[in-house]
Design a protein that fits this description.
There is one protein chain. With about 220 residues, the protein is α/β, with parallel strands linked by helices. It has seven helices and ten strands. The protein is globular, with a radius of gyration of 17 Å. The chain binds adenosine-5'-diphosphate and magnesium ion.
Length: about 220
């Protein structure tokens, strides 16, 4: 046996049903992610990458199968424990950053900490530190909505790390950026992955991003290749 995985997906199946219709997104998908790995999940649009990330984050439940986090069965978590799992253990970055546009960059990075019960001063200090790590110390008080696409995605990365997660889940984090900006966000993501001791899973259809991962999981035709 290898080292204990941080995440294990066991025979995961997801089927969406609406009335008579059913969509089998994937069936019997099994994999393990070791602590410290940077894994790319690739596959064509509609292959089920986002759905898979939702299962791993306990944002949705599998039709069959199990997700284990540190050996614990995620489906057994009650609502409170699931919320805590997402807030404390996982940092998210989405294609559309979902920053609050009317709030400053600093406030956006403070918010998950305040929600998680951190004090105001500690939250602000950590937010400033993270903004400086993503090269945006000077932009702390600017409204998120005024920042460029690449800057917004860097704020989203800082926000994802606000509560010192062990797991970073990113869904097409460079999907709405031009090539050069995307490349810089990938550099930053890799750098933060290492400096924060993260385990990272990145859904992407970018070959450049996939090539820079430690390992690639490919979803196609409802299976993992
Ligand atoms: N809430 C939902 N209800 C019904 N079908 C869905 C839902 N979410 C996703 N799907 C379907 O599941 C499949 C996989 O979608 P998705 O996980 O978004 O793929 P990807 O992220 O790889 O593009 C698609 O066929 C999509 O239409
Ligand atoms: Mg998707």
């Amino acid at each position: 046996m290898g080292p204990a995985p941080l995440l294990r997906a066991e025979s995961l199946t997801k089927i969406f049903r609406s009335g008579e219709e059913q969509v089998v997104v994937f069936e019997d998908v099994t994999f393990e992610i070791q602590p410290g790995e940077l894994v790319a999940v690739v596959g064509e649009s509609g292959a089920g990458k986002t759905t898979l990330l939702h299962m791993l984050a306990a944002l949705d439940t599998p039709t069959a199968g199990e997700v284990y986090f540190n050996g614990q069965r995620v489906s057994e978590f009650d609502a409170g424990r699931r919320a805590k799992y997402r807030n404390r253990q996982i940092g998210f970055v989405w294609q559309m950053h979902y920053l609050l546009p009317e709030f400053s960059a600093l406030e956006n990075v403070m918010l998950p900490q305040l929600i998680g019960g951190q004090g105001f001063e500690a939250s602000e200090a950590r937010a400033r530190q993270l903004l400086s790590e993503v090269g945006l110390a000077e932009a702390a008080s600017r409204r998120a909505g005024e920042l460029s696409g690449g800057e917004q995605q860097r704020v989203a990365l800082a926000r994802a790390l606000a509560n010192q997660p062990s797991l970073l889940l990113a869904d097409e984090p460079t999907g709405s950026l031009d090539h050069r900006t995307a490349s810089r966000v990938i550099d930053l993501l890799k750098q933060l992955h290492h400096s924060h001791g993260l385990t990272s899973i990145i859904a992407t259809h970018s070959l450049e991003l996939a090539q820079r991962a430690d390992r690639t999981l490919r979803l196609a035709g409802g299976s993992l290749l």
